Amino acid sequence: MLFRNIFFVTLLLGFSLGSDLDKNLEVETLVKSTKSWDGETLPPYKAGQPQITILQITIPAKAKLALHKHPVINAGVLTQGELTVVTEKNETLRLKAGDPIVEVVEKWHYGINEKDTPAKIIVFYVGVKGEPVTVTKEALPSQ
Fold it and tell me: Which region holds residue 39: left if phi is over 0, alpha if psi is between -120 and 50, else beta?
């Protein structure tokens, strides 16, 4: 009985303290989607030991990234500058600081920073331990 009373008091304190703390909490959903930015449905997760990777990537001014693809689902937020993402089929997405992106999966694309200042993006990858999160086309063997 004592345990149950302690549990309920703790639960009530948790709710009351939590509600006081939550008064100033602001939550903004930047993106919630089952599709990548080009409208394609995201693939199912791969089997295996999940591995989360979070990268902050800085793209120098006037830089163009190598043609690459992501074999895993990933999403990010551009935190600084501007960035244009272009697929092999010339589908284009223009991002500015604060914009979210649900990236294309298994689709060749590149990013380009056409501005005079660096662009920074934080990207969250949901992959499988031991597998790469990015593959560049130049790194593939010649056919």
Answer: left
